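Q: Predict the assembly, please.
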Amino acid sequence: MKLNVPAIADEQAQTRQQLLEAAGTVFAERGFRNTTVREICQRAGANIAAVNYHFGDKEKLYLEVFRYSREKELERFPSLRESAPLPPEKKLAVFVHSLLLRIFDTGEASWHGQLMLREMIEPTAALDFVVAEKIRPMSDHLRGLVAELLGGRATDERVRLCSFSVVSQCVFYCHCDPVIQRLDPEQTAADSSLEKLAEHITAFSLAGMKPFRAGKK
Amino acid sequence: MKLNVPAIADEQAQTRQQLLEAAGTVFAERGFRNTTVREICQRAGANIAAVNYHFGDKEKLYLEVFRYSREKELERFPSLRESAPLPPEKKLAVFVHSLLLRIFDTGEASWHGQLMLREMIEPTAALDFVVAEKIRPMSDHLRGLVAELLGGRATDERVRLCSFSVVSQCVFYCHCDPVIQRLDPEQTAADSSLEKLAEHITAFSLAGMKPFRAGKK
DNA sequence: AGATAATTCAAACATTTGTTTGACACGTCA
DNA sequence: TGACGTGTCAAACAAATGTTTGAATTATCT
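A: Predicted assembly structure:
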């Protein structure tokens, strides 16, 4: 029972949104350079001139995809605040686990995370936006955790290095997946790998930080 | 005073080698896809048809660059065997330090390492060769170290995960450099950063492995 | 209903890039 | 010296790709 619904406005948003969704997917799979406008339009069921009409050019579409992705994420996760107070060790486990979920995600919405991860290693004009809007908030959150774990006497540099030590272990499984598949095919199997991996990285990292706790250096 | 030197053989090798060196450099900078044959030839001081003449096509040149790189490395480092027996902790420090040297290398020969690192995240038809000839030997070496550090009761899986935890911390600084530069410009400064980083990663990793030592899991 | 705006479309265009071509120059050998 | 092989070159070619064009279609508004 739709009354007073601007049907055409929906139709308009339809093509544009289909382009954004298709572009997100293809860009995440292939990266910016290897993605053709023709493939995006094919996947979106749109004509090739639609990209120019709605976005201007390929690069602007790419930038718009990140903005769209950010809106979608804010819809899904309105607030990044933790709901329950947890000990920092547990918080780290949650952080690692959720980051790995994103890395190993294979669903319809997986392109959001995958595209960010790809932009990290194949930087384009969008990187500044991605760092400001997606990476820095995550990084700040992690650094807060790490600072808590290290205790009050840790230098900014130490907090930074430890944070990098944590996040690098996680993103490695996305960035170097083709290598890992060749070195150890069994590493990329089964869903249980994610839980084991999260446990390993968390334990390794918590222990790894011990030498630097409470003003030790 | 050159006597009996096949001057033309040298000239012949000259163009071919110049192409290989130039290609190595450009491929390392831009990756396979973003590199044009025209730029390689320009840097090598060769005509554009030279690539087809000497190598057949762009992809074969790319593969040949890795073979050439491997030969060069074998010339420089005939054996990967350690010269002096060291405690495993020290060996790990040496491993991390030398890997970081490669990552932060800026000299004429730096393209060798940089190209391998790039191939890890932007895989091409060369990846199988690179894994077999460059990455797996390094990985096996590191796993030997890690197994020694963990003691005799560690599972293969644990050795693997710990090895990944070490190497991921190192390669992160190459693969995600553009992000790091935006997050923390001071992180990428000064030569002393490399030493500090090597110390940090070594300490973090040695401590990180402690929970898994001597059959702990 | 007609005027205007928005959207879509197929074809064309412009540029880039890897590859090829055939002539020419140079080197080697009998 | 001439025949043959090797290497270089400028120009041309072929294909891919992003972008543009102008007509047609659809939607909106008075």
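Chain A has a mean pLDDT of 88. Chain A is about 75% helix and 0% strand.
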